[in-house]
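Fold sample X.
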Amino acid sequence: MTLKTDEFFSRADELIAAGRFIDSKGWVPATSGNFSAKLSDGTIAITVSGKHKGHLQRDDIMLIDQSGASLDGQKPSAETLLHTALYLRYPQVNAILHPHSINATLAARLFKHEIVLEDYELLKALAGIVTHDSRITIPIFANDQNIPRLARAVDEYLDHHGDIHAYIIAGHGFYTWGGSVAETLRHLEALEFLFDCEIRLHGVKQP
């Protein structure tokens, strides 16, 4: 069993704080969502399966290796492979956040295959974008209980279309990532706003 370090607890505390903020926005109802952060040795701190993300404690963050295997005997999220696949593809990524928000759910129903975001000032909240005069595509994948198959579908899309900032799983939620928990949380908040804009623009009214 691997000893948890000060670095682990620091990342765990960042995920706990992110979970409270995300829950305060209503983006992780019930026990939905999962979060992770990569440590300097390549191991990954990730939320334990079935925990409410607005009430996380340190014991609700576990340690896995780069293949997704538990290093402390706890059970990771069923979607762990979606995290490890992103870390493998993007070595510069150090955090991944996955909420189950109403905006991502509605966007998938409305746009079906992808959502295009362009000419928004808030696009500059995403890493690497320096002007509103930008256009990004967020792909939408069919929900699938077979997580290895879903991870392969994401990988195949990236192989053919290049880098993206996030992706949506239809009827489920979305994944976004960044160089730190703080940066990833910024991406998440910006994307939530932009999804909301597109939904309203295309005539889907929210309560």
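Fold sample Y, listed below.
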Amino acid sequence: MAYDHELAGRIRQLIGSDPDLTEKKMFGGLAFLISGNMAIAASSQGGAMVRVDPAQSDALVATTKATLMNMRGRDMPGWLQVSSNDLRTDDQLAPWVEIGTGYARSLPSK
């Protein structure tokens, strides 16, 4: 399944003109990277993959509709999946863009 181009465009709009922003096709989706660190992606599985502080993963899963990403049968703290149904509006998407870009900015540049 291809990623949602409309969602990718909305993410791009919300991030704005960040000089450290790059876009890269990854995992079958389109990832948005800040200083080389993935922040958020329009996922090939639908919805968005959001990079978060691993120490906050459990709290975010408990308080939102996000789920931990599961790769090759293993849960991945620090990587959350947010369903397309929970990203229908920019008001729903914006907090995830902020969380992902905020965490990516906190990491050393690659």
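Sample Y note: The chain has a mean pLDDT of 95.
Also: The chain has three helices and six strands.
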